[in-house]
Amino acid sequence: MSTRVDERSPRQRLLETADRLFYAEGIHTVGIDRILDEAGVAKASLYKCFGSKDGLVKAYLEGRHERQKARIARALDRAGDDPRARLLAVFGAQAELFATPGFRGCAFAAATAEVPIGDDLEQVAADYRGYVRRVFRELAVEAGATDPFALACQLHLLYDGAQQVARTEHASSVAEQAHAAAGVLIDAALVH
Length: 192
What we know:
By secondary structure, the chain is mostly helical. The protein has helices at residues 10-25, 32-39, 43-50, 53-79, 83-98, 107-113, 121-143, 148-168, 174-190.
């Protein structure tokens, strides 16, 4: 009988397991013992790598943030130099997210809905939201929008709303509708 050796570090196994379970079931529903059991990691490794379950939750959300940043960067690269196409590319990246197996909406909204107001996780979510708004604002400036801040706010609102609809209606097709609506907003903002 052959025994496979898991070459992933305890940290990586904890993060991958936490990512799967927290996203699918919620941060409070999933107990630390279950994560440890499914990751095949000792409790000491959790404390050494993350300090606590809260530290693991924070790292899980930060990993989600990094993956979405990479997804958006790839979409922007594919869009080339056309400013309108670059603004719309953010919605293309979102469409990729909606199409991933097991999509369950915004991990940040779900996690912060489970914690009291003022919890440290709200800052992690605010960092992610700030990143998305900043991307829209920078792209709106590049595109020459008459009011880049207003366009960024409108596109961010559409982005957030599309995530909620895609989650609650289990419909990845909402990405096409969000893309079309973004095009209307962009065109109106670029009229000189």
